[in-house]
Amino acid sequence: MNLGRASIPKYLALSLIGAVGGFVAIFMARGSGGERWLMIGCAVILLAFLAYVVWLLAFKNKSTHVASQAQKQAALRFAPSPGKGVIYVYRKQLVGLLVGLNVVLDGKSVGQTRGLRFYRLEVEPGTHSLSGDKKCPEPLEVTVGEGEIAYVEQEIVMGMVKGSYRYQRIANIPQAQQAIYSCKLLLGAN
Questions:
Q1: TM segments (predicted)?
Q2: Quick one: 177 and 129 in the same domain?
């Protein structure tokens, strides 16, 4: 599923070239004793890092809309509409706070979470599939009945080379609700 990602190699290559250039300048400063080369090297490394952060925030993340305080208070009542079930998907981790992680419900994009954010998804009773992009290798099947609520935590999994994320259904309702209270409500795509 193509979710509108920017080309990673283009920006990553520029960042790597800048970082290598910065290290070369620092190495040259060691040999010549010049403070100027040291400052240039540090500046180039900083610019390479800033370019990567700008790419990450501007191109990789999708725009998300935070709900009003009244909408959040309604969601925090934890009460489904008649004839519906509810799935709360939340992310309480501070790891990767600004990185957007895709939420896909039954093949339809809901949006992206960031750290300390949640979605309240009203669904028809039955079994539903929560997935994401290729960084979320295993979808989670969630079954909710009429008037039932399911709590699902979206969790970043740190890897050796790159990270991924997964969904985990939380059975401890007070713990899940406490985590959600400290999060901001996001409005999903309709």
A1: 12-31, 37-59
A2: yes
CA dihedral 170, 172, 175, 179 (to 10 degrees): 20
Do 109 and 167 lie in a common domain? yes
40-49, 50-59, 113-122, 153-162: the lowest-pLDDT one: 50-59
If one counts the domains in the chain, the total is 2
Report the alpha-carbon distance of residue 124 to residue 143 in Å, rounded. Answer: 10
Place of tokens 């900083």: 46
User: What is the torsional sign of CA 64, 133, 86, 169?
Assistant: negative
DSSP3 helix / strand / coil % (the chain, rounded to 5): 35, 30, 35
Alpha carbons 35 and 49: distance in angstroms, whole number: 21
Q: Is the pLDDT at 189 greater than 80, yes or no? A: no
Beta strand spans in the chain (E): 65-66, 85-91, 101-105, 108-113, 117-123, 126-131, 140-144, 149-157, 164-170, 184-187
More confident residue, 87 or 45: 87
- Is 120:185 a contact under the CB 8 Å cutoff? yes
Is 56 found in the same domain as 20?
yes
21 is in which domain, residue-wise? 8-60
